Amino acid sequence: MKDVQIESVSKVFGADGDNVFTALKDVSLAIDGGEFLSLLGPSGCGKSTLLRCIAGLEKPTQGMVTIGGGAGKPGFDTIGLVFQSSNLLPWLSVLDNVLYPVRVKSRSLVRQYRDRAMELIDQVGLTHVANQLPDSLSGGMQQRAGIARGLVMDPDILLMDEPFSALDAMTREELQFELVRLHHETGKTFVFVTHSIPEAIFLSSKIAVMESFPGRISQILDVEFPHPRGLEILNSDRAIEIDGAIRASIYSRSSQHNSSSKDI
Amino acid sequence: MRPIVLPVLSLAALLLIWESLVWLFEVPSYLLPAPSSVWASGLQILSAVPVHVWATLYTVLAGFLVSVIIAIPLGVLISLNRVASEAIYPLLVFANAIPVIAIAPIIVVMLGTGIESRLVINFLVCFFPIMVATATGILDTPKAYLDLSRSTGAGFMTSLVTIRMPHAVPFIFSGLKIGITLSVIGAVVGEFITSNRGLGYLIVSSTTNFDLARAMFAVVVLAIMSVVLFQGVQIIQKFWFPWSIKAQDMK
User: Fold this and answer.
1) What is the 3-state secondary structure (H, E, C) of A190-249?
2) Using one digit for the tens of pLDDT, what is the confidence trace for A101-131?
3) Which chain B residue's Cα is nearest to A88?
4) CB contact under 8 A, B166 and A91
5) Could you tell me if residue A149 is inside a domain?
6) Mean pLDDT of all residues in chain A?
7) Which end of chain A is more exposed for a tag (fewer CB within 10 A), N or C?
């Protein structure tokens, strides 16, 4: 499985204008192959920007992202992307949405990948709606389809940008279980952006905690719980310890921020 | 049931009032014909009606088709290419600003009294909303859809065909529905200026003879044609792009 090396990446938006915004400042991170890494932090900390840099949707202003040791641009089938709102195309059936990355690669491949797409749709429990339009699906089902689409090219790395943030609490838990199972079964590298601490602890093997203004990584924590995991791990001493460390790092910073702004 | 019964009843009431007023005040039919004489006059020329309907319908559909074939690619072009947009958009706005009834006689002198003049007149009336709707739809494409296509390695053309164009479909249909109705207007204007057939011709020739009943009958047929064509576009959308109906309702 391919690893991801992020070497002193900075991303500045609006470099020429007045509204210069430093989204990421000197971020370095090594993500091992097969790891489930969460990028955790408050909004505005650049976690999504970092994910987009890995996905190749943003070009770092400085530094570089290497995938699988290879310099230069990775092939598009190295990376699968799952979006915040499922981002399914409303004019395509669930099956055709899952096949969309294949269609982009080559129209002639679509037939060949049909069985694989159906298998993935089955894995996320959507076989009965495979031919329906996304519009008729619940939010949870749409996001399952989004995950299946991310996996269709059999990528080495699956990037997810707050995929569960728009879902209700119960659907969210259900999908968390399935995601852990998928990670375990596929052994792929998962990079997961979230602002939920329990979600990060439950899912991850490693958590990179980020801070804002400018966005950077403040802490990297290992989460060693064995698989299969149950939600009860969140009540364990170790989880509480990790939770405390994360909160300390996020809130000490923000209280500093508040007091300094009071001075002004 | 009520949404059908009520308008039918109010229409019947309106016709009844109209009929009785004409009868009561003995209004001469060259000023205001009663609905019954409009109907009677329609029956009188019934055998000639299909020829006129077909002539107008032909202009409407041919003109509409030409407009669609030109307006949609033009809409795509101006939405995607800044230079093209800057170069031709002001001209198109200007072309659309010319009152078609003013330029129609000029076009007839230039192109003659054949179908060509009527097609050009028709095009001038209905290309603009179709083009603008297409451009709006293309530009409205959510950034997340474009991210998706980019993240899967889609190039410009693939992204245009698989993301931008389908996203624009409900917008294009809004333009087409306006366009088909305008196309009827364009066809009638064309027939006013030059033709020896068609519902527009029928109106002009009837009014010259003070035959208002016949002229009104032609107007009613035109209105029905317009509604049927509008519904036709709607049916095409429902049949081939059912998903786009919902997307449009949500907007």
Assistant:
1) EEEEECCHHHHHHHCCEEEEEECCCCEEEEEEECCCCCCCCHHHHHCHHHHHHHHHHHHH
2) 999 988 889 999 999 999 999 988 999 999 9
3) B145
4) yes
5) yes
6) 86
7) C
B238/A contact by beta carbon, under 8 A: no
pLDDT, one tens digit per residue, over A202-237 is 999 999 999 888 888 888 988 888 877 888 888 888
Residue A173 falls inside a structural domain: yes
> What total of structural domains would you count in chain A?
1
CATH of B44-250, one of 3.90.1150.10, 3.65.10.10, 1.10.3720.10, 2.20.25.90: 1.10.3720.10
Name every chain A residue with its beta carbon within 8 A of the beta carbon of B152: 76, 81, 100-101, 104-105, 153
Q: Note the pLDDT of residue B249.
A: 52
Distance from CA of A87 to the nearest CA of B (A): 7
Domains of chain B: which residue ranges?
1-32, 44-250
Smallest Cα distance from B152 to chain A, Å: 5
A117 in a structural domain: yes
Shortest Cα–Cα distance, A83 to chain B (Å): 8
Locate the chain B residue with the closest alpha carbon to A84: B144
For the cut 70, the answer to whether the pLDDT of residue A245 exceeds it is yes
